[in-house]
Design goal:
365 residues, alpha/beta, Urease, subunit C, domain 1, TIM Barrel, six-stranded mixed β-sheet, globular
Length: 365
């Protein structure tokens, strides 16, 4: 059985009525053994629906904890709280910090990995900066932005596990940085950028594979100047990030983006520290002057928003789980043999239980 900080894995049936498996809703129960899915479509059936666990590539903080300054205990708390909202893996995202701030946060994240987290799996960190365009800084502190510097980038890699870097590809030295990061197994995401379509395409040719929060904080789409969004929606090499919290992007644009980037759209919460606290999910975090500054919904709340818009379960699983899991370099799904990262929901879309590697890490009540 697979060991986990919360205990020993489950061997047996989950007691569900159906599961979403490879793009279909399969009636019947799910059996888990030794941390993996053993079988689906088992009889007799129970109640509730099993989904691949939700995966979030951009979590700045949660449940009152800012991951830039969090202690090891705070990081472990975020992991547990996210699991209670259906999330089984997440990228801790660091932004608007000075170099020492990035390095110290990366070190504490590695300490938490070594200690073991009690809930959602802690993926390699997402550095959303400092190599961003001041033209599209968004809510980031412009004083923390930096020119491209391979030595500085290397110091971040040494400080802790980095899995993704968002950068502006038009910056001087950015092409070299893209290749350097890709050569070290880091996912390069394009964002907070004023790049035109040609510059974006060159970065993709060099190995960039993701766009950070499409439609937010980058050069605007125009029919003669499509920019980052135009390339991302038309180039199958890119996975498209999208903050689908009903605030950052209009519902019509969310649906159009899902259609254009079918199978490679990875929604995110862009959650900041107040997310997950009671009463926090109604709007979004805002900086002075009303500028958007991060999301306040949990992964499960984003799924509910999308379900209420009429999306079917296979599409929901694609955008909330499997596309992001592929970007993170891991498998996802409930097919037999897959790692049992599973969330079970009841008919009201409330959480019943969350499993990470076959271990129950969260349960209703």
């Amino acid at each position: 059985m697979l060991e986990h900080p919360n205990g020993v894995g489950i061997d047996g049936r989950l007691g569900v009525a159906a599961a979403v498996v490879d793009g279909s809703v399969v009636p019947g129960d799910v059996e888990v053994r030794a941390g993996r899915v053993r079988a689906v479509g088992c009889a007799p059936r129970g109640t509730g629906l099993a989904l691949p666990g939700l995966v979030d590539l951009q979590v700045n903080g949660f449940a009152g904890v800012d991951l830039r300054t969090a202690s090891v205990d705070g990081i472990r708390s975020v992991s547990a709280e996210l699991a209670a909202h259906g999330c089984t893996s997440f990228r801790p995202t660091l932004h608007s910090a000075d170099p020492d701030g990035y390095r110290s946060a990366l070190g504490r994240l590695d300490e938490a990995r070594t200690a073991g987290v009690p809930g959602a799996r802690l993926l390699g960190a997402h550095l959303e900066g400092p190599f961003l365009s001041p033209v599209w800084a968004g809510a980031h502190d412009p004083a923390t932005l930096a020119s491209v510097d391979l030595g500085l980038a290397e110091s971040f890699m040494v400080a802790g596990s980095v899995g993704m870097v968002t950068l502006a590809p038009e910056l001087r030295g950015a092409p070299e940085l893209v290749g350097w990061l890709v050569g070290r197994g880091v996912v390069v995401s394009l964002g907070h950028t004023d790049a035109d379509a040609e510059t974006v395409r060159r970065a993709v040719d060099l190995g960039a594979t993701h766009l950070t929060h499409c439609w937010n904080a980058h050069r605007r789409f125009d029919h003669r100047d499509p920019g980052p969004a135009g390339v991302a929606l038309s180039d199958p090499r890119l996975t498209v990030g999208l903050i689908a919290d009903s605030v950052h992007v209009a519902p019509e644009v969310v649906r159009a983006t899902i259609t254009a980037a079918a199978g490679r759209l990875a929604v995110t919460t862009d959650a900041v520290a107040p997310a997950g606290l009671p009463g926090a999910a109604g709007d979004a975090a805002r900086a002075e002057g009303g500028r958007l500054a991060g999301g306040l919904r949990s992964p499960l709340e984003v799924l509910r928003v999308l379900r209420s818009s009429g999306l079917d379960w296979p599409t929901l699983v694609s955008v909330c789980s499997t596309a992001a899991a592929r970007t993170a370099g891991g498998g996802a799904g409930l097919r037999p043999g897959a790692v049992a990262d599973v969330v079970v929901l009841d008919d009201r879309l409330d959480l019943v239980r969350t499993l990470v590697g076959g271990v129950e890490v969260a349960r209703a009540g």
